[in-house]
Amino acid sequence: xxQINYVTYVNVSTLMLNGKYDVVGFPYETTVKPxxxxxxxxxxxxxxxxxxxxxxxxxxxxxxxxxxxxxxxxGRPQ
Length: 78
Prior knowledge:
Blueprint: E1 14-19, H1 28-38, E2 46-51, H2 59-74
Parallel strand pairs: 1-2
């Protein structure tokens, strides 16, 4: 099974967090960018955040991005 065959069927809001220099798990040019571009999600509902790191992202920035995304689509907590 090759995941790239199914990525066009994904049409839900998507937040992708990736490290620019991640060569071990998900290199940007060969995996992250093609997958993001092929997502079936409308452009206004997908976001790619590329950190200047490797496979591990800055915790505070990750929390900030995830919090903003959850608030946008699920609403702010009461």
